[in-house]
């Protein structure tokens, strides 16, 4: 009985440690210039703004939806010219975060050089200006964002799930 109890405890500890290993930590970093990026760890000279654990297979590791293998290491990323007090900028930021798209932000507030860069790129100081692949988007428009992501090679995991379910249902 004593050995069974010890075996149960060891098995329980192994299960707990296995579940805790099946998640990836992603942090949102901000450098001295106000530019934000999403990485595994923040590089020197930047600070952690937000931290998120994303499940990689076990639903018990976090309560969030697991990341599929085709989302890991995606070459699709975005750059956004923004200012801190901008509602459309926040909407673009949240949309891209939900879609797991790495975002580099360029804060143009109070930075003459960054503002000149934005004017050269866009012809005005309007923000947000989001660059995805070879597309330049102004403001927040979900349809345009999805279209730009897809033309840059991004595959919507929700559409893949729908197609997989349709194929499964047809073969049953």
Structural overview:
There is one protein chain. The chain is α+β, with helices and mostly antiparallel strands. The protein has two domains: 22-67, no CATH class; 74-162, Glutaredoxin. Helix content is 39%, strand content 24%. The protein is built from five helices and seven strands; from the N terminus they run H-E-E-E-E-H-E-H-E-E-H-H. The chain has helices spanning 2-20, 87-98, 112-122, 142-151, 157-171; strands spanning 23-31, 36-39, 46-55, 78-82, 103-107, 129-132, 135-138. The strands form two sheets. A four-stranded mixed β-sheet has the order 5-4-6-7, sandwiched between helices. Strands 2-1-3 form a three-stranded antiparallel β-sheet, with no helix packed on it. Strand 6 (129-132) and strand 7 (135-138) form a beta hairpin. The longest helix is centred in the N-terminal third of the chain and has 19 residues, at 2-20. The chain is flat. The protein starts with a helix and ends with a helix. Residues 58-73 have low confidence and may be disordered.
Short structural description:
39% of the residues lie in helices and 24% in strands. The chain has helices spanning 2-20, 87-98, 112-122, 142-151, 157-171, and strands spanning 23-31, 36-39, 46-55, 78-82, 103-107, 129-132, 135-138.
Mind sketching the topology for me?
Blueprint: H1 2-20, E1 23-31, E2 36-39, E3 46-55, E4 78-82, H2 87-98, E5 103-107, H3 112-122, E6 129-132, E7 135-138, H4 142-151, H5 157-171
Parallel strand pairs: 4-5
Antiparallel strand pairs: 1-2, 1-3, 4-6, 6-7
